[in-house]
Amino acid sequence: MAASTSFRISDTARARLAVRAVREGMTATALLGQLIVEGIDQLDYPGIIFRGPAHDRRAALAAGPDVWEVIARLQELDGSEEQRISVLGAESGLHPRLVRIALDYAAGQPQEVRDRIARNQAMAERSRAMSRQRAALLG
């Protein structure tokens, strides 16, 4: 539930917020809320940025893949946390520190990451099913 809060921001900040909100197709209030949440997450998890359009923002490593991609791959691997981090680092070239940043973010925002992984798995399954259906049509 949203609560009314009053802030004083500079005319320059207000104008830039309004222009960007129009460009994103959202209200200035919604954009401000998004910027606050993402900004706090970036302060809490240095190395995390946000990518994608306003309606589909996702956390990512500044110099790497989306957080959900890192976590999905870690879940596929066997071994201790450190062993998984080591394997992923060797596979991807990601420094272990970056993998830990993604893991920390995911631990703080588990539902967001789980939802993104589930969404990707569902899309992959739909793609596999379509491939099977095409193959069946072609005999």
Strand tally is 2
Evaluate the radius of gyration. Answer: 19 Å
Sheet of most strands: 2 strands, antiparallel
Helix/strand class: mainly alpha
How far apart lie the N and C ends? 54 Å
The proportion of strand residues reads: 5-15%
SSE order: HHEEHHHH
Please tally the helical runs, counting DSSP H or I stretches of 4 or more residues: 6
Can you tell me the overall shape? Answer: extended
Low-confidence stretches: none
Helix fraction by DSSP (H/I, runs of at least 4): 55-70%
Adjacency order of strands in the biggest sheet = 1-2
Query: Please, what is the average pLDDT?
Result: 94
Give a description of the structure.
The protein has 139 residues and is mainly alpha-helical. It has a domain at 62-138. The protein contains 6 helices and 2 strands. It has a two-stranded antiparallel ribbon. Strand 1 (48-51) and strand 2 (58-61) form a beta hairpin. Helix 1 (11-24) crosses helix 2 and helix 3 packs across helix 6. The longest helix has 29 residues, at 110-138. It is extended, with a radius of gyration of 19 Å. The mean pLDDT is 94.
Task: Reconstruct the topology from this structure.
Blueprint (H helix, E strand, L loop, with lengths): L10 H14 L3 H17 L3 E4 L6 E4 L5 H10 L4 H12 L3 H13 L1 H29 L1
Keywords, separated by commas or semicolons:
mainly alpha, single chain, 139 residues, extended
TL;DR?
By secondary structure, the chain is mostly helical. The protein has six helices and two strands; from the N terminus they run ααββαααα.
